[in-house]
Amino acid sequence: MAAQAARAMSSPKPSNTQYRTIFHEILNSKLPPEEKTLARLGDEASVTVAAGTLTTSWTLSVALYYLLTSPPVLKNLKTELEKGAFYIPYSAIHSLARELPLPAISD
User: Under a CB-based contact definition with an 8 Å cutoff, are residues 76 and 104 in contact?
Assistant: First the structure.
C-alpha cells in the first residue's frame, strides 16, 4: 500500500492516472498540506483495509453462528449446495442467482 500511496503522491491528479484511489481523494481534498503526508495516506489505507476485514469477518461469524444454532436451516443449505455443486467459471458467477436457484440463501 505504501507504494501505491507514493505513486498517488507523485501523480495526485486523477486525470494523470489509470484510475482513482482513496489516496487521490485525500490528496485532492481540502485537507491542509501537512495532513497529506505519506504517513497519513498509509494510516488511511490501514483503516480502510481493517474496516473491510472486520465487517466481512463479523458477517461470516454471525452467519456461521446462525447456521450452527439452527440445524434445520444448516441441513437445508447443505442439501441445496450439494444439489447445485458443479464447476462455475469465474466469468459466470454474476449470473449465479439466475442460473442456480437456492431458496435457502435467496430469501
Answer: yes
